[in-house]
Each structure stands twice: as C-alpha cells, then as structure tokens.
Design brief:
It comes from Frischella japonica. With about 70 residues, this protein is mainly α. It has two helices and no strands.
Length: about 70
C-alpha cells in the first residue's frame, strides 16, 4: 500500500545569514594599571555590561536560527 499526502502545502527553508556584528568578539577594555577601589567598581560594571551585550548577541542568533 502506498502512502499519499492529502495536502499541497510545501515548506521552504531559507538560510538567513547571521549579521557580522552578532558574531564579533566581545572584548572588554583592559583594566587601568593602577586601580583604586572606585576604579575596581567601575571596571566590574564595565565587565558586566560586556557580558550582557554578548548574551544579547547570543539571544539574537538563537532567534535568527529559530525562524
């Protein structure tokens, strides 16, 4: 017995290129040579912002992959 489909629907998959800005490295600035306690707090905030940006890039890549 042969199986036949009862629909004319076709799925077409299109590869979307991932934008280059999402694939770029997330590099933090180097810490200052002499770091005070205040400098350390600002540098830690900078590092957390870099991580947050990288995570946003990864979410965007996942959204593109799931389309």
């Amino acid at each position: 017995m042969f199986l036949q489909a009862c629909t004319t629907e076709r799925k077409v998959y299109v590869n979307q290129p991932i934008p280059a800005n999402l694939l770029s490295d997330c590099l933090p600035n180097l810490p200052p040579n002499r770091m005070t306690f205040g400098d350390s707090l600002r540098y830690n905030e900078h590092l957390l912002n870099v991580i947050e940006k990288c995570n946003a890039d990864k979410r965007a890549i996942k959204e593109i992959a799931n389309e």
